[in-house]
Amino acid sequence: MNRQILFATATITLAISVAITTLQTAYAWSLYVDLYGSALGLRLATVEIIGPFGYSDTRTVRTDPNATGNFTIPDSAVPYGYPFRVCTHSEGTLLPNCDDFTHGVGNMRISIIVPS
Predict the structure, then answer these.
(1) What is the pLDDT of residues 8-48, one digit of tens each?
(2) Which is nearest to 85 in space by CA: 64, 71, 65?
(3) Pairing mode, if any, of strands 28-36 and 108-113?
(4) SS3 (DSSP) at 92
(5) CB neighbourhood size of 98 (10 A)
(6) What local confidence, expressed as pLDDT, does residue 63 receive?
(7) pLDDT for the residue 15
(8) Range with lowest mean pLDDT among 7-11, 77-81, 109-113
(9) Given this model, what pLDDT does residue 94 score?
(10) Can you count the helices (H) and strands (E) in the chain?
């Protein structure tokens, strides 16, 4: 009987250890959003990432030449092969410019127009 309890305890301990290790090893990928087309004089643009499972993240980016918004996206939020949406708008615009993309392997770099 003691061997059964010892085996069960070892099994539970191993399962908890594996679960904790798995939680600590969360994977993510980087998305670089290059912004172009902003009107002269605009200083800021908002970039929003919308994932397929309710994930979203927003950044405000300066619209300097070669402006880029950087996002670190958890694999579970936008897994390989799944679509996601990128929307951007600038100061004073009511309607955003949105485009749909599909997550490929690893990090991605995309370009999107900032409406003015």
Answers:
(1) 444 454 444 444 444 444 689 999 999 987 666 668 899 99
(2) 71
(3) parallel
(4) coil
(5) 14
(6) 83
(7) 42
(8) 7-11
(9) 80
(10) 1, 7
- 113 residue type, one letter: I
Indicate the pairing of strand 44-50 with strand 56-62.
antiparallel
Instruction: Report the distance separating Cα 82 and Cα 97, nearest Å.
Output: 20
Q: In whole angstroms, what is the distance from residue 22 CA to residue 80 CA? A: 19
Tokens of 92: 């004073």
Q: Which residue is it, tokens 């200083």? A: 43
Which two structure tokens, joined as six digits, stand for 46? 């908002």
CA distance 54 to 58: 13
d(CA 8, CA 108): 45
Which residue, 34, 49, 40, is CA-closest to 86?
Answer: 49
Of 63-67, 87-91, 112-116, least confident by mean pLDDT is 63-67
81 to 26, 33, 89, 102, 105: CA distances (angstroms): 18, 18, 26, 6, 8
